[in-house]
Amino acid sequence: MLATNSAGWYRCYMTDVLGLLFGPARPGNIGGLAALALAFLSGCPSDERPDRSGRLVLALSSDPGHLNPAITTSGGVQTASKLLYNGLVELGAAGEPLPELAERWEVEDDGALYRFYLRRGVQWHDGEPFTSADVKFSFEEVLTRYHSRTRSSLATVLQSVDTPDPHTVEFRFSHPYAPLLQQLNVLETPILPRHIYEGTDPLQNPANRAPVGTGPFQFEAYRPGTEIRFVANPNYFKPGLPLLDDIVMRVIPEKGNQVIGLETGEIDWLFGIGGLDRRRLEKNDDIAFLQNGNSPGGSNCIMTLSFNLERPILRDVRVRRGIAHAIDRDQFLERVLFGEGQVARAPISSGIAFAHATGLGLPDFDPAESDRLLSEVGWVRTSEETRMARGIDGIEDGTPLEIEFLHFPTFAAYGQLLRAQLRSIGIDIRLRTLEPSVFVEAVFSDGDFDTNIISYCNSTDPEIGVRRMYVSSNIAPIPFSNAARYRNAEVDRLFDEARATVDKASRTALYRRIQEILVEELPYFWIVETVSTRAYRTRCNGFKLYGHFADSVSCN
Amino acid sequence: MTFARIGIRVAQAVAAVIGVTLIGFVMVHSAPGDPVFALAGEYGDESYYDFIRERFELDRSLPVRLVTYARRVMTGDFGTSYVLGRPVLSIIGERVPATLLLTVSALFVSSMTGLGLGVFAGIRPFSTRDVGVTSLTLALYAAPVFWLGQLAILFVAFRVSWFPIQGMTSAGIQTEGAAMALDIAKHLVLPTLVLASQQLVAVSRLTRTGVIDQLAQPHVRTARAKGLTNQIVVVRHALRLALLPVVTLIGHRVGHLVSGAILVEIVFGWPGIGQLTLDAIRTRDMPILLGLFMVMAFTVVIANLLTDLIYEPLDARIKYRSA
């Protein structure tokens, strides 16, 4: 095997040497023609991919540590490893499922049975054939155990994964499960090779650092803290792809230096660039931008203010509504995000088109209405700058309206603007900056906060990214779940019903009803829908915002 | 230094490393921020967190964990990283060379430049050159390392592109040997200069004071009276004794260098233990953090030990005797 290969390599090499010596093949150039003839006779691949060219250099913010996206939801690992693997489906620009490892599928029993017909002839990077056994293994032994998101959504409802033959997989659920297809892309449920992981501890398998996938690129080198290199997978199942020769991912911890790298040309692609840098680089002809709601941390994210409903001062909906009316969300969009994104119009992101409700009438910026509501409750404004309690049940008269606000260091600008805005209405916001893991403990384990801001990513289906914020079973030490400690039996029931409803129109109606209740009760206030902006050097083109972002890229 | 004396110093060193490890263990485990949350990320459920807790033995009490940890360390097992799933020693081991290269070159540059500047300023105290050197070194010392690094990147690397901006090697480089060494050297220049600039001031100030002090001593006056050249007087008579406190200082700066390297490594994307430390703190990867504490404590202890050993041949007045 090896011998044939190297002989082949030698023949092709000679062809190239002849070609170099004698110039391109054209009538009258005997040497060049001889080279061409030799190539033809020896079966060397002529350049079937005229566009395959170049190297893409991109920046990672930290060393991901390993490249197994099936055992973690870490954005760093997912960003770095996505190109190595495939999911059963790919999600298109509008979130619609497209064939990937599965060529086609059937949904039966009202959504309790999904049958996938797998693509034939797909090979792992080490040459082994890909079969339904790999899918079964990935779901049963890895994803529903070690991938926290898949485990919490599928582990309890997925009854079995069956493999009637090597090219068919059946997912059977205990009851109808609607969102499955939205969860089968490479980001959520990458398929791992069974022959490498079976019988090992997936968290410690050496392949996590020298991975084998089916994706458009294959692993080449890992230099800790420095760079990771992938080369094109010559046997990729999508004909003609990928176009690049290789991809180098550089570890650049400082965001500012990533941007400088882009400007000098050391870097071709950045997964994220801030609004201010974008404005500055807009005049640069060598740099272009792509924007959508998917970021490495998740997709369709909304910057959301949570009210701790267990705090006496926030229990009255009029107080929450009063605060909401005092918030000028356009200013957040302009001053914090530099215009990138949009003001939220509903609890569910506009990125999930079928579930996003319109015309809900979220509280708009109205200081007079805010003043009226707060005064009505008993938070009155005297000569003092801060409102005081007068005749409110359970709150001592004269208590100033001080509200604590927790945020990550990266969201400090939100806190400062909020404090400035609410001060004018007589609310004193006390900012507390907490590092993420400490924040999570304070908010979700201890419930020790008044308000906070979280970037809640709604994902591609409300079942995955929205439900967790509102169902009462999530009033528990679970990070980024029900921060508000919101409890509403009808909302719980509606979410359960929506999960088991496959018909899109019926689901739309259910999610609309949920959103109407939420806007009425305001356990949260939805500030802005954020977008993620990628920046790239125009010497490279063909980037996509979904699926494998770089499989059809070429760089000159 | 006698063997007994060395033995005592080594025993002290071991005790210091054990002490640091103990304090580190308690601090890391009582710091806020649950490693399970850092590890599991969003969208988990309780069964998942319990599973992770059990797997990494985080459900046990602190004393139990400490005993287990100590027992493992005795057998040379420093644990497995929560996040990376690999042995701590191999993870730290692959980052140490980069940090070593950076700190050793920064130590060399700062010591040599500091000495030079110190002597240069010290032989003419309170002259223009003395004031110039003092102002320059103090300014460098006062500048935060991340600011200095960022400026260096903006002007020296970005504007005039003399040096690469980030990393230890060029993107996708696949050479070996001399070409690789040259590539690393190019990347090494800026981080070394920035790290050294912070260390410079102490060395240069102390050298200056020592030189001024020694030049006023009787033995120097005698040397001058004997008609020795100025160069010989300064180098042989004044500098040799002036060096004593400087050597101690340089030895003790090693610890500072390692901590300074953390910031420099982040600014310049240098793949050493500094970057690793930051990542480990973010993800609450306790086994790695503890391993790093031990490595750093060990480095400082070794540097101090070496300082003591070098001291003796430098100063004829010091002789360690067994009591």
Short account of what is shown:
The complex is a heterodimer of chains A (556) and B (323). With 556 residues, chain A is α+β, with helices and mostly antiparallel strands.
Provide structural commentary:
Chain A is built from 17 helices and 25 strands. Chain A has a seven-stranded mixed sheet with strand order 8-9-10-1-11-23-12, sandwiched between helices. In chain A, strands 16-22-15-21-19-20 form a six-stranded mixed sheet, sandwiched between helices. Helix content of chain B is 76%, strand content 0%.
Which structural class matches the secondary elements of chain B?
mainly alpha
Q: What is the alpha-carbon Rg of chain A in Å? A: 27 Å
Mean pLDDT of chain B: 85
Main β-sheet description of chain A:
7 strands, mixed
Oligomer: heterodimer
Structural class of chain A: alpha+beta
Proportion of beta-strand residues of chain A:
15-25%
Give a count of the beta strands of chain A, DSSP E runs of length 2 or more: 25
Query: Could you name the ranges of chain A where pLDDT drops below 50 across 5 or more consecutive residues?
Result: 1-50
Largest sheet of chain B: none
Helix content of chain B: over 70%
Major sheet: arrangement of strands of chain A? 8-9-10-1-11-23-12
Segments of chain B where pLDDT lies below 50 for 5+ residues?
Answer: none
> Which chains share the greatest interface?
A-B, 61 and 54 residues
Distance between the termini of chain B: 12 Å
